[in-house]
Amino acid sequence: MVNHKTFKEKSIHGRYVTSEMLKMEWLGKSETSTIKTIGSSVQENGIISISLGTGKNKILMWSQMHGNESTTTKAVVDLVNYLRSGETIATSILENCSLLIIPILNPDGAKQYTRVNANKIDLNRDAKQLTQPESKILRNVFEEFRPDYCFNLHDQRTLFSAGKDAKPATVSFLAPASDQDRQVTPTREKAMKLIVAMNKMLQQLIPGQVGRYDDGFNDNCVGDTFQMLKVPTILFEAGHFPKDYEREKTREYIFYALIESINTIAASKVEEFKSVDYLEIPENQKLFYDVIVRHVGLVNSFFEPNENIGIRFKEVLRDNKLLFEPELIDSGKLEGYFGHEILDCSSEKAIEDLYSRKEILNLILSKKK
Questions:
Q1: What's the confidence (pLDDT) of residue 1?
Q2: Distance, CA of 359 to CA of 136 (rounded, Å)
Q3: Exposed/middle/buried for 314, CB within 10 Å: 0-12, 13-18, 19+?
Q4: Which of 92, 94, 155, 339 has its CA 20 to 30 A from that of 361?
Q5: Which of 200, 224, 16, 199 lies closest to 104, judged by CA?
Q6: Same domain flag for 177 and 316
Q7: Same domain, yes or no, for 15 and 109?
């Protein structure tokens, strides 16, 4: 297997990734790819595309349609480094595929670390009206490039589990529906088979941590629209890996998934996989908190002695730094739910840990009768 560390772009890391970071450090390295400005955002920030390869299989991918979803952007940067490397598989991919990559579709949202663009519009709900310049740019590229496959690259929150087990959905996929009945059309079936190929590989690295995203149909979503237009489209969702809030491990797994999918296309192996296996991937459930504090009443009598609380982190950008601020979401028995971290106040060690976590402790103590 390819060694991700060899191709990881060290100038880009963490959760806060902007177009300026790409321009300053990484884009200047291009020798075997074509970089082009394909338009401007609401705030007149340039949106770039990167073209690689000369093969007949055309693959269009775009990342950071939601500005605060940057993990796949990092993985795409690493992918481009790999494709420029001259390694055997990389060379084969470039001979058999033509890739058009938009690393950051929503540069205004990326800079502000928001899901929406500068007009406060969710670009992934603008596929029909095409009211925003960023939406029009993507659609124009789609129509001019005429891809054979589309990769729609996103992040998902830490609350998702892969099925009902206590395993996070570190990577999730979706072959979007193209109608209300969610029929398995030939186009959708191709997307399913490609996901099966990636899942088979990922199960060797993160067993039980691959999920299947909800396939409710919404023709305002870009993936559903492109599937309607008979182009196999795959939604990638970069999720949580234990203790990896900077999403550097998840970045690695998305990198491997991208290589596996593109190489499967390049080698004409898509039809070797069975679409029925797609449905064996467990559907995502919302069963995780970032922290569960058990027996919280032993610390604050506002709560019952055996009560548990569920905390999730809110991502806040301050002075160009991303902070994770705890928010109390639920309280009660929380049966059937899991925590990426468990603090049990009946344990002396957990109490010591809690008192070293001032923000969480203050959140608990702020509740008064």
A1: 85
A2: 43
A3: exposed
A4: 155
A5: 16
A6: no
A7: yes
The share of the chain scoring above pLDDT 70, in percent, equals 98
Q: Is 124 left (phi over 0), alpha (psi -120 to 50) or beta?
A: alpha
Domain match, 159 and 52 both: yes
Model confidence at 25: pLDDT above 90 = no
CA distance 8 to 22: 14
Active-site annotation holds for 359: no
Give the tens place of pLDDT for each residue, 199-257: 999 999 999 999 999 999 999 999 999 999 999 999 999 999 999 999 999 999 999 99
Residue 144's contacts (CB-CB under 8 Å, 6 or more residues apart) are: none
Let me know whether 124 and 239 are in one domain. yes
**Helix locations, the chain, DSSP H:** 4-7, 19-21, 71-83, 88-96, 107-112, 133-145, 186-202, 222-228, 248-266, 348-356, 358-365
Q: Are 31 and 84 in contact (CB under 8 A)?
A: yes
Looking at the structure, do residues 322 and 280 belong to the same domain, yes or no?
no
**140 and 267 fall within a common domain:** yes
Same domain, 272 and 332: no
d(CA 315, CA 155): 13
Cα–Cα dist 332/207, whole Å: 31
Which of 286, 316, 347 lies at the terminal end of a domain, its last residue? 286
pTM: 0.96
Please count the structural domains in the chain.
Answer: 2
Q: Annotated catalytic residue: which of 69, 134, 189, 237? A: 237
pLDDT in tens, 171-180: 999 999 999 9
Distances in whole angstroms, Cα of residue 265 to Cα of each of 33, 49, 217, 326: 20, 21, 26, 43
Query: Could you identify the residue written with the tokens 């969610």?
Result: 182
User: Do the beta carbons of residue 12 and residue 25 sit within 8 Å?
Assistant: yes
Q: What are phi and psi of 210, to 5 degrees?
A: -115, 130
Spatial distance between the Cα atoms of 32 and 175, rounded to a whole number of angstroms: 31
